[in-house]
Amino acid sequence: MKRTTISDIARECGVSLSTVSLVLNNSPRISAKTRARVLAAVEKFGYQPNMQARALASRSSRMVSVVVPHLRHVFADIYFGEIVSGIYDYASEHDYKVMLDVANRKFVQNREYLNILKTRRVDGMLFIASSMEDTYLKEFDGRKDAFLLVNHYYPDTDLNYIMIDYKDSARQAAEHLTGLGHCRIGLIAGVNTYTGRDFRDAFIAACTCRGCREKDIVVTEGGRDWSQEDGFRAAEKLLSESQSITAIMAANDRMAIGAMRYVHTHGLKVPEDISIMGVDDIPDARFTTPGLTTVHHPLYTLGRRACEVVLQLFRGELDAGRELIAGALSKRESTAPPRDMR
């Protein structure tokens, strides 16, 4: 069967090719009567626009690149899944496809992060949750590419970013735990990202501002992957070094769930013996026993907005994009006042 073309639609309606094109691009210049006639013909013939031709005409590839870190089981990770889902849904709604890459050694050594944009294979690139080690991304500093860091940033650069306000999330977490009476707190921190360090420093500062002694906030690293296994090991380290802590604050929910598992396997109860709190509010946080108190981060919304911003950068509607998105406390059953205050 012969594929219906834009010329067929124009001939059917007795209008020019440009008129059909304006209708398909939702131009306000076309009258309602003509628009209705063209759309009726489109539906009648089941016409599908040739996206490749439209892309060439507009110098747009109709593709966005999404790059995730080279971590174990990254595609099974709900954190990345939520963000990528938001990106994909926004892209799909705007007739864009998503090209997914992992920043492995080959990707970095071949400088694919630059080549993808230089060759116009995509209109923009979204790099999710990069770490402090990914210094090669500073090559984008000063360039005019539609490049956006998602949930990370690099200080002393002009790189565009959109991210959760981790300093504010840390303040909310500190106010919740100290408000319950906790001042001897173990902090499982992610220190391989600037956002992780921001959370650590802001949490300690907020606790001391509310009367806690800095020496009573015991900090241990959560590892490179910020995983349940990392949280399990970190909780073991915290409780072996400081048995006086009454609460554990983990820099994400996965590490908090790992810490909760360690506490349970060693005969302690949450929150009766020790309170545990996380960050992100991933779906699993609602189904732990007890339910995990956390700071809700709208990761899906973050992904949608990231895709919107990178396309605005591509179209020249924005010169720069730097945004913070606020989190909100989600109280559940894993936190309570310390035993000596009940």
Unreliable spans: none
Oligomer: single chain
Order of helices and strands: HHHHEHEHHEEEHEHEHEHEEHEE
Number of domains: 3
CATH architecture classification name of the largest domain: 3-Layer(aba) Sandwich
Structural class given helices, strands, pairing?
alpha/beta
Mean pLDDT equals 90
Strand content: 15-25%
Description:
This protein has 342 residues and is α/β, with parallel strands linked by helices. It has 3 domains: 6-49, lambda repressor-like DNA-binding domains (434 Repressor (Amino-terminal Domain), Orthogonal Bundle), CATH 1.10.260; 63-164 and 300-326, Response regulator (Rossmann fold, 3-Layer(aba) Sandwich), CATH 3.40.50; 166-297 and 329-341, 3-Layer(aba) Sandwich (Rossmann fold). The protein is built from 12 helices and 12 strands. Strands 2-1-3-4-5-11 form a 6-stranded parallel β-sheet, with helices on both faces. It has a 6-stranded mixed β-sheet with strand order 7-6-8-9-10-12, sandwiched between helices. α11 (253-265) links the parallel β8 and β9.
